[in-house]
Amino acid sequence: MALQASKILSKNVLQSQNNKLWRKSNQCIGQCLLKQYSSAEWTNLSQPPRKKVTNMPPMNEPVKGLPKPIYANFKEDNQTTKVTVLSNGLTVASENRFGEFCTVGVVIDSGSRYEVAYPSGVSHFLEKLAFNSTKHYPDRDEIINQLEKHGGICDSQASRDTFIYAASAYTSGLNDVIQLLAEATLRPQITPDEVDGARQAIHFELETLSMRPEQETLLMDMIHA
Predict the structure, then answer these.
(1) Closest by Cα among 176, 187, 159 to 104
(2) Which positions fall inside the Peptidase M16 N-terminal domain (predicted)?
(3) Eight-class DSSP state of 212
(4) How far is CA 214 from CA 12, 128, 175, 217, 224, in A?
(5) How far apart are the first and last CA of the chain?
(6) For a Cys-Cys bond, which of 13, 137, 188, 220 suits 142, CB 3.0-4.6 Å?
(7) Taking each helix axis from N to C terminus, what angle separates 192-211 and 122-129, rounded to the nearest 10 degrees?
(8) Is the pTM of this model over 0.90?
(9) Which of 48-52, 62-66, 76-80, 136-140 comes out lowest in average pLDDT?
(10) Is the omega angle on the peptide bond into residue 67 within 30 degrees of 0, that is, cis?
(11) Alpha-carbon 71 to chain mean position
């Protein structure tokens, strides 16, 4: 009991001494600040500096001398999709878009649903064989070089219902892009070397799918099966 009472007494003494020291230090700091700053300077400490740094007006005032901005207006007539049927039966869907680039694609009513039970996977092979050599372009490099002249890219995608050839480039190269799509769609060479390259790419994809299965792809195949 005596030991516990001694500890409590010592603790109270230390707390009282610390409180006295804390009050004394605060008083010293306040007196030092009052001595350092006059009453006017002390009032200005809480106010931001009023010195002007730039000639620009504040954010709540407009900048003088700037022309009136002209904003783009949305017009429904410019955004509608126009569908035209040519004399040869080809259906063309076109739509105006703002910018220097255009995208052109060929959608074919073909896909894996039209394949026979064996051999299957022809659409997958055609997807890998797209934009290779044609009658006009001897190899894939010629096609890539033609697209690079117009800052373009190309791609192909096969689904169960459709097969798509597409390319994007500057609007100035629209005619060349259409010719390129016609060559890739109607006049591909499909050489033995290209078929071997497509087979290797597909084999690699199947190995990757077996190591890291994608649920969406496998589930879709099971549903359609």
Answers:
(1) 176
(2) 92-224
(3) S
(4) 70, 20, 39, 6, 16
(5) 86
(6) 137
(7) 110
(8) no
(9) 48-52
(10) no
(11) 25
Phi/psi for 8 (5° steps) reads: -65, -45
Reported as a single tens digit per residue, the pLDDT across 112-135 is 888 887 788 899 999 999 999 999
pLDDT in tens, 176-207: 999 999 999 999 999 999 999 999 999 998 88
Is the pLDDT assigned to residue 109 strictly greater than 70?
yes
The residue among 114, 198, 127 whose CA lies nearest residue 166 is: 127
DSSP per-residue string spanning 83-138: EEE-TTS-EEEE---SSSEEEEEEEES--GGGS-SSS--HHHHHHHHTTS-BSSSS
Kind and range of the H or E element at 214? none
User: How far is it, in rounded angstroms, from Cα 149 to Cα 169?
Assistant: 9
The two structure tokens encoding residue 6:
């001694």
Both tokens of residue 96? 């105006």
Q: Enumerate the H helices of the chain as residue ranges.
A: 2-36, 39-44, 76-79, 122-129, 140-149, 174-186, 192-211, 215-224
